[in-house]
Design brief:
binds adenosine-5'-diphosphate; binds zinc ion; alpha/beta; about 600 residues; single chain; six-stranded mixed β-sheet
Length: about 600
């Protein structure tokens, strides 16, 4: 065979593949643009939908099971509107409430498959063709992809986010100012011979503002922001991860200086352990990322920021010099941080005079920035539903409760026996806590089921603490054991209801011994390891001793809880009886049991 026909053949192949792709891409783009335009015009906000349902203006809503989009049909118009619902459960509960209170709203829940059938009717055979062509595209993507847009990533030329939009986190911001300067004037730094970090890892829980701060760096420096999520592109197309990483960086080089942000990097950067299945897929992707980062040359000003909640999962190779050699922890906000965040996000909200943001910051220990943001939104919705003109303190309190312990489920049927058990269980927690110096701030006790729990005992958390004392850990375990102990003492039976308490208490005991060095016989030694085999260096005796001491701690706590309850049986009975009758006991009501 001569050279020529071979070449022609290749060209022919390319044309055969590329022409349908162009055609299909054009059709898809057309549909998207059309749909987008159409849906933008017809969108209403979630808050408006709430209000309109309350005002009985809505004739019918339609949703797809498992989806988040709601189609709304109004009584006075033939047009259909749509809105997005962020958390489905509260919305469904709200709808149920409305239906019960006599709203004549019609609700149409559709199965996703029914939706597909409709779509198929509309587009006829198009989906089948699309799927075939998409498959071809996937296989050929490495060669013929659209060079400017990398699938699964997002580009922002100007994020518009500034450091002032990130509340609190002052130290972290101060540390990152340097990066901003560098992005602004890379030449100056390079001329000086400064070594600039290529990669920065941001550690922190979801919602603590990692994405926000990365965007703020880009915004402050006035450079583009390209982002992608690790999990997203592992899940969607097997075999594409590495190629996508390559394209992402190709694009970054073109628009440099810029910020590349990789969310959930643990999804691609997990430790390379085996070579099978999705694991090896991850490895290819991770390897490509390492290759890209090692390959930055001095003319390129690309800073890669990556976020994770699970630093211990990351492959150590990612942390070597020249890669993610700088790590910054983004903590959940402390009291002051929460106040700052609340101030920032309440700027555009109408707050009533009785709202004191300081108090709210005090009531929301452990909330992340995203949760605080959500809290203010929920409060606004609740205020609207309550017919208030401004957001009142009660609206916010309701929202706090809703977010901390899940939704009240008044309508869940609870048998008398379960009710009694829950009452004694929660009374047990509360009464035991009252006799423990570090646990005595009981705020509310209830046997109304919330979330997965049959009841709850809520504590006041007013101060933020960095350190927790051994006494506090011990007393926490005693309070946790109070539930099970009360079941046993009062009903001479035990239930599965204490499983979470036991899990938490065991975790505390284990951490005390293996992390905090609070063991009696082992002393201050850390047995924290990445892999179980690493424990071998300590020898069997030490490992056995951990088990013995964990058990001792739990046993001691359980006995202490029993002792407290046995010497205050009348209070336990009274609290449990009141719970069965009223379902919820407030802080003040609870105090009274101890004054009498
Ligand atoms: P992460 O990337 O850590 O999961 P995000 O940056 O996506 O969190 O935060 C989600 C939202 O929560 C932000 O868009 C912002 O509204 C709010 N938020 C989180 N932290 C802060 C903060 N420190 N200051 C102001 N808003 C915050
Ligand atoms: Zn419990």
């Amino acid at each position: 065979m001569s050279e020529k026909p071979k070449k022609e053949n290749k060209l022919k192949n390319i044309i055969v593949v590329i022409i349908p792709i162009i055609f299909i891409v054009a059709v898809i783009a057309g549909i998207f643009i059309y749909k987008n335009k159409e849906s933008k015009e017809k969108q209403i906000t979630y808050d408006k939908l709430y209000q309109d349902i309350i005002d009985k203006k809505v004739e019918k809503i339609e949703m797809i099971v498992g989806g988040s989009s709601v189609t709304v049909k109004y009584k006075d118009s033939d047009d259909e509107k749509t809105t997005k619902v962020n958390s489905l459960q509260p919305f469904m509960d709200f709808i149920n409430e409305q239906l019960k209170s006599g709203n004549d709203l019609k609700v149409d829940l559709k199965n996703p498959s029914a939706f597909l059938t409709i779509a198929e009717n509309i587009f006829g055979l198009l989906p089948t063709i699309l799927i075939i062509v998409l498959m071809v595209m996937i296989f050929k993507m490495q060669g013929f992809g659209d060079k400017n847009k990398v699938y699964g990533t997002e580009d922002e030329n100007d994020t518009g986010v500034k450091f002032k939009d990130v509340a609190g986190l002052d130290e972290e911001k101060a540390e990152l100012v340097e990066i901003v300067d560098f992005l602004k004037e890379p030449k100056k730094f390079k001329a000086m011979g400064a070594r600039i970090p290529r990669g920065i890892l941001l550690y922190g829980k979801p919602g603590t503002g990692k994405t926000l701060i990365a965007k703020a760096i880009a915004g402050e420096a006035g450079v583009p922001f390209i982002s992608m999520s690790g999990s997203e592109f592992i899940e969607m197309f097997a075999g594409l991860g590495a190629s996508r990483v390559r394209k992402l960086f190709e694009r970054a080089r073109k628009i440099s200086p810029c910020i590349v942000f990789i969310d959930e990097i643990d999804a691609i950067g997990s430790r390379r352990t085996s070579n099978s299945g999705s694991e090896s897929e991850n490895n290819q992707t991770l390897n490509q990322l390492l290759v890209e980062m090692d390959g930055f040359d001095t003319n390129e000003t690309i800073i890669v920021l990556a976020a994770t909640n699970r630093p211990e999962m990351l492959d150590k190779a990612l942390l070597r010099p020249g890669r993610f050699d700088r790590q910054i922890t983004i903590p959940a906000p402390d009291l002051l941080g929460r106040l700052e965040i609340l101030k920032l996000h309440s700027k555009d909200k109408k707050l009533a005079g009785d709202v004191n943001l300081k108090d709210i910051a005090g009531d929301t220990a452990g909330f992340t920035g995203a949760e605080l943001f959500n809290l203010l939104n929920e409060s606004a919705i609740i205020a609207t539903r309550n017919g208030h003109k401004e957001i009142n303190r009660v609206d916010i309190d309701t929202a706090v409760k809703k977010i901390t312990v899940g939704l009240e489920k008044h309508n869940r049927v609870v048998s008398e026996k379960d009710k009694k058990l829950t009452a004694f269980h929660e009374a047990g927690h509360a009464v035991v806590s009252k006799f423990l110096e570090t646990q005595k701030n009981v705020k509310e006790i209830s046997i109304i089921p919330r979330g997965l729990a049959g009841g709850y005992t809520m504590y006041k958390t007013n101060e933020d603490k960095f350190y927790v004392s051994k006494t506090e850990l011990e007393e926490k375990m005693i309070a946790l054991m109070g539930g099970r102990a009360a079941e046993k003492i009062a009903l001479n039976d035990i239930s599965t209801g204490a499983s979470n308490d036991i899990e938490v208490a065991t975790g505390i005991a284990r951490d005390m011994i293996t992390i905090y060095g609070m063991s009696k016989s082992l002393g201050p030694i850390s047995l924290k390891v990445d892999e179980p085999y690493e424990l071998q260096v300590f020898g069997e005796n030490i490992v056995d001793e951990v088990g013995v001491e964990v058990k001792q701690l739990i046993d001691t706590a359980y006995v202490a809880a029993q002792k407290i309850l046995l010497s205050h049986m009348s209070i336990l009975n009274a609290v449990a009886d009141t719970l069965m009758e009223k379902e919820t006991i407030s802080e003040e009501e609870f105090e009274k049991f101890f004054n009498e």
